[in-house]
């Protein structure tokens, strides 16, 4: 039996759902089981937090410097200005994520509406 053995419209969706669940959920449950036994100040948990933060920073940098889609039409200066001001507002505003996102998004939209060179 192979993936192509079934000739129904729903089979690819079921296959993707099961394969996606098996590939990720097992690791999530193992992370919960192992993570509950770790101290909040342990070296392993500190390393995991550092890696997660680095990955998030890399994704954000990629979106700012090498965007795809509609964000590509916004000049890089506007993108850098929006993220800088949004982060500053996040810090000044008591670390409220929604506030920083709202300001950065507003600046991006305003920058996109500005006439081009």
From TrEMBL:
Q: Does the keyword DNA-binding apply?
A: no
Residue ranges crossing the lipid bilayer per the database entry: 12-35, 47-68, 74-92, 97-114
Q: Which domain of life is it from?
A: Bacteria
The record ties this protein, via InterPro entries, to: Brnchd-chn_aa_trnsp_AzlD
Signal peptide location in the record? none
| Alphabetical keyword list | Membrane, Transmembrane, Transmembrane helix
**Keyword Transmembrane helix recorded:** yes
Q: Which Pfam families match?
A: AzlD
Name of the protein: AzlD domain-containing protein
Task: State the organism of origin.
Answer: Hoeflea alexandrii
Lineage, top ranks: Bacteria, Pseudomonadati, Pseudomonadota, Alphaproteobacteria, Hyphomicrobiales
